Amino acid sequence: MTASRQSGMGLVELMVWAVLSMLVVAVIGIIYVNGKVVARVNDSVSRMQENGRFAMYLLERDLRMAAFRGCNSAAVTPLNLLASAAYPYQYGNGVSGYSGSGGTWTPALDSAISSLSPAPASGSDVVTVRLIDGQGIPLTARMTNQTADLQVGAGSELGAGDVLLVADCSAATIFNATSFDSGSGIVGHDAGNAVVPGNTSNDLGHVFGTDASIYRLVTRTYFVAPSARKPSIRSLWSNSVPAYDGQSQPEEIVEGVEGLALLFGEDLVGQRAANRYVAADAVGNWSNVVNLRAQVLLGTARDSVATSPQPYSFAGVSTTPTDRRVRSTMASVITIRNRVP
User: Fold this and answer.
1) Is 205 exposed, middle or buried (CB count within 10 Å of its CB: 0-12, 13-18, 19+)?
2) Both ends of the chain: CA-CA distance in Å?
3) What is the rounded CA–CA span in Å between residue 184 and residue 151?
4) d(Cα 109, Cα 91) in Å, to the nearest integer?
C-alpha cells in the first residue's frame, strides 16, 4: 500500500496571510474614515452655500420691493393717516441702514431694534426695509366719498389691525384697518385707537375706485445675532411689524450667517442711478438710495471641518480665526425697483 501524503498551511504562511489581511483591513478602514470625513466636509460646505443662497434671496426679494407706493411708485407720495410716528410706522422711508463697527452702530440703532432679544451682534450691519407683504387685493366697488369704508372680495386675507396701503396710479393712502368683515369684505378705517397704531382721521384723501388695490404693509429689519438653536454660531434674523404670519418676533431664519455688510448706492443728481456707494453712516438722503451692495459672511455650523484655521476676507478686512470652520462670502447688487424708471 502506498501511504497518502497530507499537506497544510505552515506557520510562515499563516503569518503572511495574517499580515496581508491586516493590511487589507487597515486600507479599507482608512478609505472608510477618509470617505466619511470628505462626506462630512462636503455636507457642511453644501449646507453653508445653500444657507447663503437663501439668505441672499430673502434680502434681494425684500429690498427690491422697498418703498412700494402703488402702480406709480416713483411719482406718488402716500398720505399717512397712522396715529404713531414710531420706528415701525415710518413708511416714508423705504430703506434705512446702520453701519456696525465694534459694539456700536452709526447712526445709533433705534430703540425698536436695540431692545430686540436677541439684540444685533456687534460688528455687523443692520438694515430695515418697508414694503408690501403679499399680493394686492383689488377693490370691488368705488368709494362713495373719501371717508367711506373700502370694499374688497369676501374672504380676503385681511384683518383688523393690519397696516394697509390703498393705491391706484394717481394716489395712495396708508392707514390702519380698524375692522374687517370677512363675509362682506368691508374694510373699516375709523379714527381713534381701536387698534394699534390707530388713525388720525378716517379721510383717505381720495375716492378710490375699482382700479385701486389694498396692500398689507410691513416693516422688516434684518440683522445678525447668535443662533437660538446653536448658540456657538450666528444666524440671520428678521423682525417684522406687523407679523402677519403669526410667528413670534424676532425670527431666526438662516443659520450660519456670521456677518452682514452693506453699501448703499445713492443718486446725487436725480438720474435714478447710483453715483456713489457708501456705508450707512455716510448716506446723505435715504430717499435717494436706489440700490445696495449686500455681502454676507457664511460659516459652517460644524467646527473642525478644516484641518487648520482658514483665513478669510470680509468687508475689506482679513481675519484668521481660532476655530477650524470653513467660511465663504456671497455678494449681490440689489436695485430698489420702485425708485428707478
Assistant:
1) middle
2) 112
3) 8
4) 17
* pTM for the whole structure: 0.88
C-alpha–C-alpha distance, residues 74 and 69, integer Å: 8
DSSP character string of 215-257: EEEEEEEEEEEE-SS-TTSEEEEEEEES-TT---SSEEEEETE
User: Residue 177 and residue 194: Cα distance in Å, rounded?
Assistant: 9
Cell of 70: 402703488
Count H helices, E strands: the chain?
2, 18
Q: Rg for the chain (alpha carbons), in Å?
A: 29
Distance CA 159, CA 182 (A): 8
225 confidence band (pLDDT: 50, 70, 90): very high
**From 68-82, 209-223, 249-263, the region with the lowest mean pLDDT:** 68-82
